[in-house]
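User: Let's play a game. I give you a shape written as tokens, and you guess the letters that built it. Ready? Here's round one.
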């Protein structure tokens, strides 16, 4: 039916909206509030948090774990070895791998490498994340970038191979020279060339009246 967006709820996944064209293999864990759209395939052994969203043609698993609030856009495959924290955004057609040196005629299932994506991270459309690396919390991978090394927290990465070209705030705003997020009014500071952290200010005590 044109314009129809209400999904049937399968009894084994209470509170989860699963489109009739999607496949969910057993066993799998899916948190309430998650929405699984057209032609998605969730393989066995996956552990998916609450309030996640899977766009059209997404494939997940087997044995993939992700936290609450993740948004996986159209045409993304999350292979075994990929682990997402909470509130991770995977843009359309971004790519993960799980083997460094694949050959069609050689079995390398025992060589799958782990790729961890930290809380709040964003991976842009058509970006590629080579397996065996960790992406720090709230990092931002630009569209089309190719990640070939570990990514620091809050890092803005772009290019092929990806390199850090700046810093991003937790709100997803590129930080300027003052290192203050204009949205959340949070200041940040560099503690080394590749480390950023928010600055937590304490309110100064009021001066006593004379």
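Assistant: Ready! My guess for every position:
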């Amino acid at each position: 039916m044109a314009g129809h967006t209400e999904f049937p709820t399968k009894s084994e996944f209470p509170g989860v909206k699963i489109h009739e064209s999607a496949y969910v293999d057993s066993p799998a864990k899916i948190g309430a509030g998650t929405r699984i759209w057209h032609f998605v395939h969730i393989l066995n052994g996956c552990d998916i948090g609450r309030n996640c969203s899977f766009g059209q043609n997404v494939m997940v698993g087997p044995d993939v774990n992700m936290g609450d609030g993740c948004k996986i856009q159209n045409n993304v495959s999350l292979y075994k070895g990929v682990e997402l924290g909470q509130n991770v955004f995977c843009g359309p057609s971004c790519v993960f791998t799980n083997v460094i040196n694949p050959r069609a005629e050689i079995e390398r299932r025992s060589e799958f490498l782990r790729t961890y994506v930290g809380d709040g991270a964003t991976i842009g459309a058509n970006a590629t994340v080579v397996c065996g690396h960790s992406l720090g919390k709230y990092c931002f991978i630009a569209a089309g970038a190719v990640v070939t090394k570990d990514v620091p927290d809050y890092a803005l990465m772009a290019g092929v191979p990806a390199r850090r070209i700046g810093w991003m705030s937790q709100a997803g705003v590129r930080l300027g020279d003052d290192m203050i997020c204009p949205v959340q009014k949070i200041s940040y500071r560099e503690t080394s060339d590749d480390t950023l952290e928010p600055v937590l200010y304490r309110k100064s005590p009021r001066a006593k009246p004379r």
